[in-house]
Amino acid sequence: LVLDLLGRLRTEPREQAGDTVRDFLAAQRAITAYWPGDAEVSASVTGTAIYRRVARARLRMTLEAIEDQLRGYRPGKTPIAEQYMARGSCTIEHVMPQGWETHWPLGERDKQARDEAVQTIGNLTLVTQKLNSTLSNNPWAIKRETLNARSVALLKADVTNKDHWGEDEIVARGAAMVALISEVWPIPDAAPGVPTVLPLTGKIGVADLLASGALHVGQVLTGRGGSQQKCTVLSDGGLDVAGVRYGTPSGAGRAVTQRPTNGWWHWLVDEDKRLCLSDLLREYQAMESEQPIVDVD
Q1: Residues of the chain with pLDDT under 70
Q2: 158 CB-side CA count, 13 A
Q3: HSE-up of 215 (CA within 13 Å, CB side)?
Q4: Which of 62, 71, 122, 160 could disulfide-link 81, Cβ–Cβ 3.0 to 4.6 Å?
Q5: How far apart, in Å, are the Cα atoms of 75 and each of 67, 79, 173, 185, 186?
Q6: SS3 (DSSP) at 31
Q7: What pLDDT sits at residue 192?
């Protein structure tokens, strides 16, 4: 894909490189390369422990972009704030601390669910390193007062206006933040937001990857949600999740995520290399034909 993009860039005027990259990516239709729509971005961002999954610098850049959006720095509009968010000078702060046990009563909540919520985007903000150290694992009343007094970031507004900070508040703020992400990086009008079905030799399934030798019977796949999400490849191309057979990767994915899931992207063949079923599918397609085949479920 990158080689194709570089080839396209060589043929277009240098000053139009940005538009060329956008148009090239918007034109992709294969399941391994299409530009995801807002709904998929929302599900992916809010449904994952993003602090653990994304490099700190990249996550900080995303939060800085959200902050600038809140400050009114939008194309064609006069900004509300005096200046952009300072780049690279702040650290990522967990509003509900990772060490929440000391001052944040669990009540009837589930401990594992809270640990996961703490790492999601709705619980993150930007502060200076010194302020980060000051906030530490303090109880909510102290963190709220300190953030109000010391932080100028607008990202804190949806946090410090709450009398209580817990899982429900984290989910609501995460939804608002992902909406801002979609505003900062809108999907081009030319991009459908979903892969286009281009059947050539019929629907491709796990059984085809088994037959090609890309997978083997009994192989264990790991979900992107962590080591607790496992499935086993069966001899007929089905996937076993906790003793229940599913006919498609997406069906098995939904069983562990409890929401509609692109199983070809969700199931990792090699967790360390982040190699997923979609990568095997791309290799299979390359062997079968130069035409992209994405008729998968």
Answers
A1: 31, 196-203, 285-297
A2: 21
A3: 33
A4: 71
A5: 15, 9, 24, 12, 12
A6: coil
A7: 84
213: alpha, beta or left? (left if phi > 0; alpha if psi -120 to 50): left
State both tokens at 243.
């003793």
pLDDT at residue 88 in the model: 87
Q: Is the pTM of this model over 0.70?
A: no
Q: Which amino acid is at 176?
A: A
Q: With contact defined as beta carbons under 8 Å apart, do 81 and 157 qualify? A: no
Q: What is the pLDDT of residues 10-41, one digit of tens each?
A: 989 999 999 999 998 998 877 678 899 998 89
Cα–Cα distances in Å, from 143 out to 120, 131, 167, 225, 294?
Answer: 18, 10, 16, 30, 49
- Mean pLDDT for the chain? 87
Residue 193 burial class via C-beta count within 10 angstroms: exposed 0-12, middle 13-18, buried 19 and up = middle
Cite the beta strand spans of the chain per DSSP E: 91-94, 124-127, 220-223, 230-233, 239-241, 244-246, 267-270, 275-276
Residue 234, classed as helix, strand or coil, is coil
Distance CA 196, CA 26 (A): 12
Query: 275: helix, coil or strand?
Result: strand
Residue 88: Cβ-neighbour burial (10 angstroms; 0-12, 13-18, 19+): exposed
